[in-house]
Design goal:
The protein has three helices and 27 strands. The chain has 362 residues and is mainly beta.
Amino acid sequence: MTTFNKTRAWHRSNLAVITAAALVLAAAVAAYSKSTPPAPTAPVSLGAVDYLGQLRKPADVKGKPSGFKRVVNKILGLEDDQRAMATPHGVAVDSKGRVLVADTKGQVIHMFDAAGRKYKQIHPPESDPFLSPIAIALDSKEQIYVTDSGRSKIFVFRNDGKFLHTLGALGKNETIFKRCTGLAIDRKRDVLYVVDTVAQRIVVLTSDGKVLDRFGKRGDGPAEFNYPTHIAVAADGTLWVVDSLNFRIQHLDASGKFIAVFGGQGDRAGELDKPKGIVVDSQGHVLVVEGRFDRVQAYDSDGHLLMAFGNTGRQPGEFFLPTGIALDNEGRIYVADGQNGRVEIFRLKPEAGLKPDAAGAR
């Protein structure tokens, strides 16, 4: 056989392999699409809220490529839409509407830019990687702060995702935290409130890491905690702390002095069993994620239940161990649906009597 014929035979053989691989991948894509609940093309009414959609992978903001292009990209290793979330936890939304998600199991920050139809992943340097990113918050310059409970420190990035530095480290293997989890930032003063769960306290920092205060201790009395996890800063500068194993939400002033409390363990509406993320809107409404019963509960500032939404499952508007929550300036609610690997987006209906917005959510 001549060299030319050998070359032509080689090309035919490889073309057959590529064609076969394409058919297999196309079948796999079709099978996967059949097993995944279809995304709604219009808002879905769920009682007091409308379900608007979800964020799971880059294609949710970039748009889906054609079937042929997806197959070719998979063959060539160019498919980036497989970078789906694993277990999202913290959520934040910047002034441009970009949604930032701390993916604990994925050890990455996802940035979804629907307006710009862009997606990117944010990582610290390989020499100082994430281990267990939990909460995410923005300061007045929209710099990005991420608590890492495994590394017990805070990673700081520019608003474009470029790594800047860390906060809390005292040395290579020592930090000021025992296990930092929840995080909220008072953007008027650029003061950080960090939940140190194992130490049973809140640590107050400047944006460059200087410790301003520490308050809290183990207990079930006022301003005492039993494994606190999440925190929010209201428009008036007061704090709302998820006091997890006391099954309550504590309202404190900026110095940690007790103001009020609501909650109590139970499975009825308004009660708590595994409270997670918390956010406060500009009107003082407090939205709390109840992880065990897979719902979001909204209270007034006195702790009276106003409404709730959510149920257990994987369909639109359902949750499986939800975690973080955030608001944007348009009144949309973003809920990290942890074990379903997505962030779901909702909007309260006008008749619900609430108009949440992020003006007071920090």
